[in-house]
Design a protein that fits this description.
The strands form 2 sheets. The protein has a 7-stranded mixed β-sheet, with helices on both faces. The chain contains 12 helices and 9 strands. It is elongated and about 70 Å long. It folds into 2 domains: 3-200, Rossmann fold (3-Layer(aba) Sandwich); 211-277, rRNA adenine dimethylase, C-terminal domain (Helicase, Ruva Protein, domain 3), CATH 1.10.8.100. α3 links the parallel β2 and β3 (64-69). The N and C termini lie far apart (63 Å). The protein is of the alpha/beta class. Bound molecules: S-adenosylmethionine (SAM). S-adenosylmethionine binds next to β1, α3 and β3.
C-alpha cells in the first residue's frame, strides 16, 4: 500500500510540529538500508518511525528493531504495519528522554545501529545525544536537512565547517550517502534533505586532556567568523580569563598564523591550541 493510502486508511494527518514528513520514495530507503550495512546479527534503533515505511524493511534485515515514536496517534498504525514481525518493539517515547543505556540492556544486550529519518526540529540534540552515547552506537544512518548534512561532513576551509562539524568528526567518520529532494516525502518539507552515515570511532580523532577547554576554543574561533582567529579568540575567551598575551603565545607555539580564520583550523590544530591555552 502506498503512503497516501495508508494515511487515508488510518485517518492520519501529518503533524508538522512533530516534523512529520513521511518517506514515499523507495530509492532513499534503499540507500539508507545499504549504507547501514545491515546483517541478521544487527540490532537497530529507529528514531521516529512515523507510519513504518522504513521500520518494515529494517525488520526484514535486522535481528531486532526498536522503534521510538513520540506521536501516540501513530502507535496503532505502526503496530498494525509491523504486526507480522516478531523482532520489533514499538515504544511511545520522546527520543530525547530515552535512556539509551537502559534500551541496550533491556532490548539489545549489545551495541546497536541507528537508522532514522529524523524529525528536523530536533536534529542537533539527537545527533549530540548519539555522540555522547557513542560507545553504545556502532553507526548511524540518518536523513537530515541537506544543509545539516553538509555541516556534518564539512572539511576545514569552507562556510559549512563549524562547531557541529568538529563536535561530530572528533568522534566519528562522516560521509554523505545521497541527496534527497522534497518530492520524496508526503507532505514535502520546505527544505532539501540528505542521508549521512556517521561511523563512531573507538578513540577520538585526537587525544584531549580537557574536552571542555577544547570546545571553548572551538566555539570562540567560530564565534565571529568574519574576524581573524587572533581577534575571535581574544573576544571569545576573555570571559574564561585567558589574556590576549597568552593567546598570542599559544598561537605562536602551535605554529598557527593568527591572521587565519577560525574556520580553516583542523581538529588537530584546535587540539594543539587548546592544550597550550590551558597552561
Ligand atoms: N520514519 C518515517 C518515515 O521516514 O516516513 C517518519 C519520519 S518523520 C521525518 C519524523 C518522525 O519522528 C515522525 O513520525 C514524528 O512523529 C517523530 N518524532 C518527532 N519528534 C519525536 C521525538 N521527540 N521522539 C521520537 N519521535 C519523534
Amino acid at each position: 500500500m502506498d503512503i497516501k493510502s495508508v494515511m487515508k486508511k488510518y485517518g492520519i494527518k501529518a503533524d508538522k510540529r512533530l516534523g512529520q514528513h513521511f518517506l514515499a520514495d523507495e530509492r532513499p530507503i534503499a540507500a539508507m538500508l545499504e549504507a547501514a550495512r545491515l546483517s541478521p546479527e544487527d540490532c537497530v534503533l529507529e528514531i521516529g518511525p512515523g507510519i513504518g515505511v522504513l521500520t518494515e524493511k529494517l525488520c526484514q534485515r535486522a535481528k531486532k528493531v526498536v522503534a521510538v515514536e513520540k506521536d501516540r496517534n501513530l502507535i496503532p498504525v505502526l503496530e498494525s504495519m509491523t504486526g507480522i514481525f516478531e523482532n520489533v518493539c514499538i515504544i511511545e517515547e520522546d527520543v530525547l528522554k530515552l535512556d539509551l543505556e537502559l534500551l541496550k540492556k533491556r532490548y539489545f544486550m549489545s551495541d546497536f545501529k541507528v537508522v532514522a529519518n529524523l524529525p528536523y526540529y530536533i536534529t542537533s540534540p539527537i545527533i549530540m545525544k548519539l555522540v555522547n552515547h557513542r560507545r553504545l552506537v556502532k553507526l548511524a544512518v540518518i536523513m537530515v536537512q541537506k544543509e545539516v548534512a553538509r555541516r556534518l561532513s564539512a572539511l576545514p576551509g569552507g562556510k559549512d565547517y563549524g562547531v557541529l562539524s568538529v563536535a561530530v568528526q572528533l568522534y566519528a567518520d562522516v560521509d554523505m550517502v545521497c541527496e534527497v529532494g522534497r518530492d520524496a516525502f508526503v507532505p514535502p518539507p520546505k527544505v532539501d534533505s540528505a542521508v549521512v552515515r556517521i561511523v563512531f570511532k573507538s578513540e577520538p580523532r585526537v587525544k584531549l586532556e580537557d574536552e571542555d577547554a577544547f570546545f571553548k576554543v572551538v566555539e570562540a574561533a567560530f564565534g565571529q567568523r568574519r574576524k581573524i582567529l587572533r581577534n575571535s579568540l581574544k573576544s571569545g575567551l576573555a570571559l574564561c580569563g585567558i589574556s590576549p598575551e597568552k593567546i598570542d603565545n599559544a598561537l605562536e607555539k602551535a605554529g598557527i598564523d593568527p591572521a587565519r580564520r577560525g574556520e580553516t583550523l583542523s581538529i588537530e590544530e584546535f587540539a594543539k591550541l587548546s592544550a597550550l591555552l590551558r597552561y
